[in-house]
Amino acid sequence: MTCSLDLKEYVFEEGPAAERARVEAHAAGCTACRDEIARLRLTQTSLLAVRDEEPPRRIAFVSDKVFEPRWYQRVWNSGPQLGFAAAALLACAILIHSYRAPAPAPQTAVVQVDTTVIEREVSARVTAAVTKAVADSEARQQKRTVELLQAAGQRYEFDRRATIAAFSEQTRLLQKQVANMYVTANNLRAGE
Amino acid sequence: MIFREVEDRDLIAQARRGKVEAYNLLVSRWEKRVFNYVLRLVGHREDALDLTQDVFLKAYQNLGKLEDPSRFAPWLYRIAHNESYSLLRKSRPETATEYEPPQPRPASGLFPVELSLAVESALKLLTADQREAVVLKVYQGLKFDEMAEILSCPVSTVKSRLYTALDLLKQTLAPVAAGDER
């Protein structure tokens, strides 16, 4: 009868080192456990009397193109190559994207607004602008009217003076002709 | 330049890239162990050799599915386990666990033939599960967690099978082993 230690685990060199040390320390002072360990080791040694045999023939495989993996299978099965290819592909994609992609659109914030306030503000601004435009237009019209009236007055005065001057000239010419007629008539009478 | 031993994971990586020579080197490292494991399960040399070839062919075809190359050994033994039990079920469905041990070969000077015969007879007394646990632990030198992975069962189950088998073998072989020691 042995103590409650796992001697078989110890003989098979399994288990943690601390447990093995505990078994060794115990077996040093326990004859039953020491004998049991010896019997287990003897059994183990006896079992190894049946030794491994050499295989009757050696096993070897030959390379056959039909069964050889394709190039993409080799790449797929190779971790480093596949990783490098993936990294290269990713780098190319980033480069192409950086050259071809448009500039990012400015980001706009969406703000909730009260539309009635905007409508009121717009209406006020439109009214003010219209009022100002009408006032400006009226002022421009009045100024233009005054300018036209002044121009018409000047033209009338000029025409009136020209008419008076022409009339005076015509009157003087007529007086001369009358005077000449009188002279001629007097001369005729004097000649008779 | 640094020289280091070419490890299994290097050969696995090369074999995955289609280098058959690398895979052949891997096979040469493991074929004896797999052959003897299968031989102790099926008990027939020609069957064991055919199964070993099938195991390595299947391993080559599924090498891409091996996620962790450091777990190559349990993975390979798992394939061998499945192939062996598949053959046993096909050939002898009603007595799939019956074991016919291979004829022992003349042992070296250290171990007389009588002891080899006694061990073969003692192994025959075990159930298939117990025998496989002994083969994996004693002859293949695997750890409990690796055995659990190969056999698809918890470590506690592996220990239970192995310990029961070891107690039986201890009782059976004790007189022979003691006589041999003398």
Helix percent band of chain A: over 70%
Q: Note the total helix count of chain A.
A: 6
Largest sheet of chain B: none
- Class inferred from helices and paired strands of chain A: mainly alpha
Helix and strand pattern of chain A: HHHHHH
Of all chain pairs, the largest interface belongs to:
A-B, 34 and 57 residues
**Rg estimate of chain A, integer Å:** 67 Å
Strand content of chain A: under 5%
Short summary:
The complex is a heterodimer of chains A (192) and B (182). With 192 residues, chain A is mainly α.
Protein architecture, described:
The complex is a heterodimer of chains A (192) and B (182). Chain A is an all-alpha fold. Helix content of chain A is 73%, strand content 0%. Chain B is an all-alpha fold and 182 residues long. Chain B is built from eight helices and no strands. Chain B has helices spanning 8-16, 20-42, 45-61, 72-91, 113-124, 128-139, 144-151, 155-181. In chain B, helix 1 (8-16) packs across helix 2 (20-42) and helix 2 packs across helix 3. The longest helix of chain B has 27 residues, at 155-181. The N and C termini of chain B lie far apart (54 Å).
